[in-house]
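Page header: ASSEMBLY MODEL / two components / 284 residues total.
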Amino acid sequence: MGGHRELVERFIATLEARDWAAWAGLLHPDVVYEIPQSRERIRGRDRYLRFNQEYPGDWHLRTKIVIADKEHGVAWFEWRLSGRLDEGSADEGSADEGSADEGSADGMAFFEFADGLITRVTDFWPEPYEPPAGREHLVERW
Amino acid sequence: MGGHRELVERFIATLEARDWAAWAGLLHPDVVYEIPQSRERIRGRDRYLRFNQEYPGDWHLRTKIVIADKEHGVAWFEWRLSGRLDEGSADEGSADEGSADEGSADGMAFFEFADGLITRVTDFWPEPYEPPAGREHLVERW
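Prediction written out in full:
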């Protein structure tokens, strides 16, 4: 399934490049985009395109791992907000332990396909959290 | 890569079944388990087994999608804490909008393999959040 794998890789690369024509060309006109964490859904290529064009901030994406088969694909990527550290906390030390990570994190997008196009994208945006107590005897931190 | 796909499916199924012998049998002795959100790492099958055996709560896992190739695999699964709704909030209505979802959510685990065993597991546990303002014209909620 080199085709689907390549489709996912191009999805991330054209989004990072803001190559909107190339990016939209990967999508089925009736593509459905969902963010389960916020229970948000966008229907259709045109709205999904506008969502990304309007998304605020100087965001950047870098693919870490892509896996795909005949039906499904996934991209595990790093996202980064350039300039985020300049907005206030850079010189303040670490008020909370997670602040240094707010400018970049992992995201993942799952894909479905039809006729060589992407028909569904489901995004996840996991956020940092402090570990629950009780497992320090098994765990190391980084 | 039916082998790796099956390995991932069995990983989730044997974990759900608390079939510790079968589950540990899928893992390389030097498996590394990581949770990037909390920056936690567990080295080795024995500690990783103990981590899961000691994990509190009546947790349950249900596989939604598995994708795998020669090098990598992913499981997108639903996790659920049984009894969580009985602990207080069930009869209180929804104090905040997200409370009904706290008992179940999506998780995802990425895998690496060697010699038919799992050598690395990286878990993500995305949590619910409220959508940022400014995209209501494009989005429907559920």
